[in-house]
Amino acid sequence: MKSAYELALERLEARGIERPREEALTEEVKQQIAEIRQKAEADLAQAEILYRDRLKSTYDPAARAKEEEEYREDRRRIESARDGKIEALKASAD
Prior knowledge:
With about 90 residues, this protein is mainly alpha-helical. Helix content is about 80%, strand content about 0%. The radius of gyration is 20 Å and the shape is elongated.
């Protein structure tokens, strides 16, 4: 009996879509990736705390909108840096 995963892979192949490659990452690389993700999560939490703190003292709608945009930009920057570091690490592991 085949697993749902194997059946899904067969359906993909039937449609002409390649199987996703199975990355053989070492435990060291997996650990480094986990550390990168943990650091990013900490940075995101810090950014959110600072954002909420700034909102408490801001009542002007235009200033609040500016704070919100800055917060979204911080999140994008942190997430982009995290993804870039992980991709670079995976590429160097190949």
